[in-house]
Inverse folding.
């Protein structure tokens, strides 16, 4: 294990390329749009009421709580996203808006530090009683993350102090010993938030309380009394996986858990907390458990898009290699959670496999959750959509054929906003004498190493072209000797690394990173070029639904066929992996997006043919046009398919 | 349209071969077994309480109604099956048992003819109020069918008279005009039962009442007030297809219905009634509608096994070509209903396509509902079962990996019993100067034609071998000129027809039957031989899930691969349709069942291979062993798969 440190956001600026385009969208369009959504100002969208709930709780408006029990968390995530927006682009008006929300939050907080508009207003007698579905600490965790981000963005302490009071309230009520309550939240989140608060404040009580919540999980069946969970679905326990302990990852002590099970977002947030405890708390036993869970989640239970969760009901993992493309859940939040977990694993161990998966989830299953214009969202990200089937079949009821403006349960939209707007955090990590470059994006980073701060300026044509230049802009005397570790993305080839135009040998370290270990001078330029051929990916043959089909990948992007380019009945297409792939700018999508065109055949949908017959199929030549999966459903609605038959 | 007449059961005897074996099982094992089940005497089986309900209603036992609202219908179907058993094999003890049940039914009937133990005992104030889910007429219809069968078996009128009083009760309460109630049952069945009662008694009021129920359907939204249906599932209307009119085939007048929709068993029973009205009532407009519905049901929405209903929730049809093998519903009762409908279409039009589909459903999707020993049942008949997936995935919750002893909702077991035990009825039909031979089974038939009764003695090696001999055993003077119409089964080849050993030209009439039109003498033997090669069936390419795969068929049997023969992960098998197929007696199944062995390959389930990789698959040679679909799950439990990949 080579532990490395994260950079905080102000130290990294995104200044061009793919991610600048995406961040511009978040800063300019998404943050204002989501503010309108939280204020119920989007016509025809599902209502949120999240801000109104705080207004009512603050005594500034009349009415009653409306929305899901965890509606407060949307506000926490939006403030977090907006704060990252402020770090990127100062915006006094936005800052004033957030200050206004913080005033509401301050007034909503009870005198003892408790904070949750649902329970304060609607069920005060039930506070801290429903650890299965109450989501109190979950909401608190997201508000803590928002408060930390806003403090980092503005230096203002008001929100942070509110959430410190909240954390102190938790610490006073929960923990070991006879005077405190033994409990933990059905939806993990507070655990990782407390670790963040510890990292910011240095207050070890928060790390200890987080560890308590992690450690006690799975040992006390009485805490998450899921036998009482009836408000989330009908039927008895057999019909209702909410009654199953593994839904909450509460079926066994966390160190005994080896399979990624249950609600996939809950799982990801728990594993994040475990990884924080591994790294910050130094608990190697958690590292051992996490590596098993990683293998289960990413080597047996993950979609090729980095999507997690194979079943709609309970948004959950099922069993190994059960990865149906059409009934997938693959929640946007689960891919985001996987990115958070992968990043923590990266920091804890510096093995490249974590950054590889982070990249897969980032460019595919997470980014697909938001439209190119930022105003439409997918909660569920299947790998095959046939609108007529989605409409007809009850077992597709969780799937939407088109992104929507907002959700009654809107966890995903602000989550993707905060992710994209803080994308810089995942690019570098560092130790005393090493810098790791995990992801590629044009921009500047100020990286503290033993000798002082190093400023790197990255110019990246990735993810569209395999060409990256990193210029050492500033380097302190005495720090010239430094090992730069570059991740050569998977599914690329013939990587060449240069320093100041001179080739250097590509030497991989034990963790899979290409090392360039030398004495640097200001102005040195490290270049990396690699080929990004179109690849034809096959799943493990144990994946029943996709065995024998191919997914097309170029660089980090999984591609898909859309009806907009190929007409309906995409299952009739048969791709020829030996045919040359032609790349083409997608003028109808913009944003530098590249289409792939490749020859194939289409089975003729002969309507005269009997339903069952011994006749062979007739096929005709065709060109199959593919677009990156994340960019689908940005034109006319219709079918989409990732896994394609081959001829 | 060439209308033909049905033979009643006592006129046809099954005396050998495949169907004698199956009938022996019903007569010797199933009827006694199901009697025990209806009396809750099967250890570990789901309780029935159906007989106990009648005992309580009759005042012979204490207690309250238990079971589904339509539990009475199981008794009607069991009496019908047992009566066919009595026709086949007299059994005074069984007859005495049935007489005892009939006494209970007589005592359960109310003085005005009303009969339904649930409503009489548990909700008398709600009689004739819930036409969506009340199932009152549905139960009455099955009791009428049972009464007719028992009368045919024994000549005893007691039960028949009970049900005539019941029918008169209906006729007094329902029908046109201001003094009668405008209603029809949410689950069709009474309509076809009333037609049967009309055919037996000649009482036209029953035909007219049946026609009233058929005609008014889909015209009066207030009758089936499904907005109140809440006791069958949670969620609002959007979540709950029980709230949709098409579930009840009540979305449009029946003559305007062109797609087979909704609950598939309800659909089949409605179409049976429409076909009865077409034939018995002479209403050609119904024939026009039925032909459209037939094309929808069998040419776009039917599994290759003759299974109907693609979705578990609401046991219903979905949309054209949506035929997933693993989440199929394909209820045993729906295939049985399809057989009943196909038979009525055969009688009304004598087109061979109806008998072809009847055969498909009979030998596959219906017969799969019962184990070879007769004591285990499938309600749902998917075309792919992976036990681990069935257990793990909520969208497979309707599927069972193994047949069970009984169901709380036990419509299927007595339905398959009455079907098999009355198999003789589907073999012949006749008009003045023609006899049609639709199906093949060893046995004797007494067939009335214009000149008097003709006795045919059939010796059939079908379905295992394509060899049938029909001997004219008796023929009346003056009736010697007679056209015999033979159906040459589909998926056979090179049919040869002989009369007394001499080949005759195979001439198909416009309806697709081979005509042998001549002057007959007693002792004449018509022989038919045909090849039954192993066929590789492809679905329409519009069937997404099975496009590119093959189903193996020999004669009427669809075959499948089972884990018992091939090990797990059947999706890894790739069949070579050009390899020779070897036939082998299935010593582990008995009953003359033939296995098919055919060379193929198996993709190696390399657990070291990454979940996603550009590596090609490795394959190894193997022999794929197949058993008839109906005979699966009669050995050790495990996977089953009909549609196989090809190499």
């Amino acid at each position: 294990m080579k532990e490395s440190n994260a950079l905080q956001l102000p130290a990294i600026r995104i200044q061009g390329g793919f991610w600048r385009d995406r961040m511009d969208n978040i800063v300019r369009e998404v943050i204002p749009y989501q503010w309108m959504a939280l204020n119920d100002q989007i016509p025809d969208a599902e209502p949120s009421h999240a801000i109104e709930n705080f207004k009512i709780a603050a005594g500034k408006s009349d009415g009653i709580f409306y929305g899901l029990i965890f509606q407060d968390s949307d506000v926490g995530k939006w403030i977090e996203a907006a704060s990252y927006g402020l770090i990127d682009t100062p915006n006094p008006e936005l800052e004033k808006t957030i200050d206004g929300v913080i005033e509401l939050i301050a007034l909503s907080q009870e005198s003892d530090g408790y904070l949750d508009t649902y329970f304060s207003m609607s069920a005060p007698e039930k506070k801290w009683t429903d650890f299965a579905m109450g989501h109190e600490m979950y909401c608190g965790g997201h508000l803590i993350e928002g408060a930390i981000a806003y403090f980092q963005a503005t230096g203002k302490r008001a929100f942070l102090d509110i959430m410190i009071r909240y954390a102190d309230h938790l610490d006073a009520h929960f923990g070991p010993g006879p005077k405190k309550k033994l409990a933990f939240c059905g939806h993990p989140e507070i655990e990782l938030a407390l670790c963040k608060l510890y990292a910011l404040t240095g207050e070890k009580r928060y790390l200890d309380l987080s560890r308590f919540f992690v450690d006690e999980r799975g040992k006390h069946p009485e805490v998450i009394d899921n036998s009482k969970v009836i408000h989330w679905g009908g039927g008895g326990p057999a019909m209702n996986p909410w009654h199953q302990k593994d839904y909450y990852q509460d079926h066994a002590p966390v160190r005994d858990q080896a399979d990624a099970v249950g609600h996939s977002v809950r799982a990801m947030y728990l594993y994040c907390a475990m990884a924080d405890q591994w790294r910050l708390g130094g608990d190697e036993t958690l590292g051992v458990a996490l590596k098993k869970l990683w293998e289960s989640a990413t080597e047996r239970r993950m979609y090729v898009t980095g999507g997690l969760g194979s079943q709609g009901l309970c948004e959950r993992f099922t069993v190994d290699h059960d990865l149906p493309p059409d009934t997938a859940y693959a929640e946007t939040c689960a891919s985001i959670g996987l990115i958070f977990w992968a990043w923590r694993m990266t920091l804890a161990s510096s093995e490249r496999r974590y950054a590889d998966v982070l990249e897969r989830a980032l460019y595919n299953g997470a980014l697909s959750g938001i439209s190119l214009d930022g105003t439409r969202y997918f909660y569920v990200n299947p790998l095959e959509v046939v609108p007529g089937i989605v409409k007809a079949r009850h077992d597709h009821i969780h799937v939407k054929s088109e992104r929507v403006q907002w959700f009654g349960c809107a966890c995903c939209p602000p989550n993707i906003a905060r992710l994209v707007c803080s994308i810089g955090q995942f690019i570098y990590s560092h130790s005393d004498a090493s810098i790791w470059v995990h992801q590629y994006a044009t921009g500047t980073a100020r990286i503290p190493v033993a000798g002082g701060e190093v400023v790197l300026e990255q110019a990246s044509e990735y993810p569209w072209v395999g060409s990256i230049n990193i210029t050492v802009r500033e380097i302190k005397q005495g720090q010239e000797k430094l090992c730069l570790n570059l991740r050569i993305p998977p599914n690329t080839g013939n990587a060449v690394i240069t320093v100041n135009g001179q080739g250097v040998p590509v030497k991989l370290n034990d963790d899979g990173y290409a090392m360039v270990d030398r004495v640097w001078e200001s102005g040195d330029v490290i270049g990396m070029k690699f080929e990004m051929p179109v690849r034809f990916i096959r799943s493990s043959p144990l994946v029943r639904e996709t065995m024998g089909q191919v997914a097309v990948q170029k660089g980090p992007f999984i591609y898909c066929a859309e009806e907009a380019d190929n007409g309906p009945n995409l299952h009739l297409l048969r791709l020829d992996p030996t045919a040359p792939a032609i790349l083409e700018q997608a003028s109808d999508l913009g944003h530098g997006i590249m289409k792939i065109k490749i020859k194939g055949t289409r089975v003729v949908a002969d309507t005269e043919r009997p339903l069952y017959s011994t006749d062979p199929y007739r096929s005709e030549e065709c060109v199959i046009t593919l677009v990156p999966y994340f960019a689908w459903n940005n034109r006319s609605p219709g079918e989409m398919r990732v896994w394609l038959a081959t001829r």
Chain B touches chain A through 59 residues (CB under 8 Å). Chain B has three domains: 5-233+240-425, 427-531, 535-646.
